[in-house]
Design goal:
Elements (H helix, E strand, L loop, with lengths): L12 E3 L4 E4 L6 E5 L10 E6 L6 E3 L4 E3 L6 E7 L3 E6 L6
Antiparallel strand pairs: 1-8, 2-7, 3-6, 3-8, 4-5, 4-7
């Protein structure tokens, strides 16, 4: 099966239940988790697993994570009705 490469640029990524975000070659990028626009105080958790890292990571609103390697990173909504993510270089640019 061949993979279709898609390029999408946006400031925010809205992750819904049953969505999975897969990143490749994102070393050095920072993933920041914010509340959803409709329910910013809702109990939101995102599960992140990075290829080559021993520990998985759980993010809550306000948390961020710098991607360490160039392998596969899988991000999934763990709890909540939705999550708003920003992927950028950590210098305020997304």
């Amino acid at each position: 099966m061949s993979h279709t490469q898609v390029s999408l640029q946006r400031q925010w990524i809205d992750l819904q239940p049953d969505d999975t975000l897969i990143l490749h070659r994102a070393a050095g990028q920072v993933l920041q988790l914010h509340g959803t626009p409709t329910a910013p105080q809702q109990a939101i958790r995102v599960w992140l697993t990075e290829q080559g890292q021993r520990e998985d990571v759980f993010l809550q609103p306000g948390d961020s994570y710098r991607i360490r390697g160039a392998g596969r990173v899988v991000v999934t909504l763990w709890s909540g009705a939705g999550a708003r993510l920003r992927l950028g270089d950590g210098a305020g640019r997304a």
